[in-house]
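Quick one before lunch.
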Amino acid sequence: MLDLPVIERKPRNVPPLSEADQKRLLRQMMLIRNFENQAMELFRQGLIKGSAHSSVGQEAISAGACSALDLRDFVMTHHRGHGHCIAKGASLPRMMAELMGRVDGYSGGLGGSMHIADLKLNILGANGIVGAGIGLSLGAALAAQQCGDGGIGIVFFGDGAANEGVFHETVNLAAVKRLPLILFCENNLYGVSTQMRAVTAGGSIANRAAGYGIPGEKIDGNDLIQVYEIVAEAAARARAGEGPTLIEAMTYRWGDHSMRAKLPNYRASEEEEAWRARDPVAFLGRQLGMDESAMKQMADEVAAEVDAAVVYGKASVEPASEVLAPAVVAPIRRVEPQPAPGARLLSYTDAVAEAISQEMQRDPSVFIIGQDIARIGGVFGSTRGLLEKFGPERVIDSPISEQAIAGAAIGAAMMGRRAIAEVQFFDFVTLMMDMIVNQAAKYRFMLGGKPSLPVVIRGPQGSGVRLAAQHSQSLEAWFAHVPGLVVLAPSTPYDAKGLLIAAIRDDNPVLVIEHKKLYLGPATPVPEAPYELQIGRAEIKRTGTDVTLVASLSMVAEALRAADQLASEGLSAEVIDLRTLRPLDMDTILASVRKTNRCVIVHEAWRTGGLGGEIAAEISEKAFDSLDAPVMRLGAVDVPTPYNDRLERAVVPDAKAIADAARTVAFGTRN
Ligand SMILES: Cc1ncc(C[n+]2csc(CCOP(=O)(O)OP(=O)(O)O)c2C)c(N)n1
Ligand SMILES: [Mg+2]
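Model of the thiamine diphosphate complex:
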């Protein structure tokens, strides 16, 4: 009934566990069990809130697998991750304090059970999103490979996670790149109430390895020695450059899905009893010939250790709300005044390529990954020449796997690399949303506001090249909405280079939103030496006194054209290029509106829910008394981008529409 696999062969290159090691690991399993049980008790008492997921029944996996790792090796864990953290050496008091939401917890109370990490121990973090850690582990393993110090990593995930798309994208790319990664599936037969066998085609996760040409092992997850040996073998392969291994360990969680869950019965009591009879702790105790009193003595010792952690947690205070704001993004660096443009002319795409090239030259930890970026230098040419200069380890042509691309970049940034991911068309960012919004944007915060995550995600959005509804959108407002992200929008080759260099040097996840139509624009002056433009500062492109025009990306040129027209009519327009969409430079906008008393905001994104609404609201809250007319917003008509040339132009604002709007706010009429 338990369907426990038996490994017939002897794993290779595996130093055996001594009796002392086995006793230490038995003790560690007891520690994990006691920690989980005490956490459950604290949850009942209301000292741990929300939820937490007990790994009781699965302890042999944490202890056995982590015992095959070194300190330099990373562990990426998941929502049921306490055991992995303990086995990798995490502090019990700090874990317990975090579960209680206290300042001395690992994340100072900002993360809780599902976001425990200890970067000094290379515990890169638990995760509340099923499967996400798998994608992030790809980047961490890529970083380990790039470092070349023999470090490897394990990503733990459940049977449920193996049915997420990110699993397949990750295994494929990890296999292609022969990454030093062990993909460890803890198959406890259920994802919440859903039986794994009812929703998993083929019935085996380990067998999926064959499809990707890597070893797949199905093992008994309740047998610590077997777990250790198979992981140690996979680790030796990974360290030798032989690539990833997929391990499926059969196991069972004794408790319910979570400490909170009060679900209707979904498991047969005979099944539960059969698995309890196969207790991994008792099993190893028997193998070691430990009698009842020796087991009890060990259990009492670990109980005292966990008791001390509980005392520590209870004594720690709750965090004050002052911790919140600084935890969201790393401080934005102040940079030198911007350089004069000079006389050298460069196109927008060449400016992007030059920025990346100069940063890769300066900092060996910078790399870039994306579709078609290496061999052909990108479908738009914005990475041309990089492969030749920096080689395929740092300029990586990826499969068409957007989650894996984002996961690779973000996971590598967790390991301290400065990573750049290219989104070939920004519309495809929809396939990266979990990685950007749930992972990158929240990483620093969930881990208590200390870690940095230097990752850049860049690519072109926008219409104007007749690519219709799925290749022409302007989606910046989605990202400008999310705390934890920085969003940049260069409108000229000069800005493209200066903002991208600033993005690469910044310690936050930065989205650099470029524009296809600007890619096709003329070459304009760009300094040859590297330079940064100040993140968070808008640029006044033209000064004026009668009306403020706020624009970004392709609309900046339209606003400037409108300003020319208006000037010929005697109306003086001030044109502001936002340059940074998050954080918005409201100081510059408000100062301008207080001077001109009128404002038109224009973007290519749809008007409804666009950034213009946010800016208009800020103006009305902070400069209402200065306004002589309502703030006007111009954006695309609320329809998907049409293919037909004339219709495509008709749905996006242009210089004429901007000038009309300016006249309306100035005179109350359109002419
Ligand atoms: C993307 C996503 N979908 C759904 C959930 C809700 N959820 C949390 S844990 C869980 C079950 C996961 O099952 P499995 O991967 O087998 O891990 P286990 O809980 O069995 O350890 C689900 C569905 C989630 N957190 N994230
Ligand atoms: Mg499961």
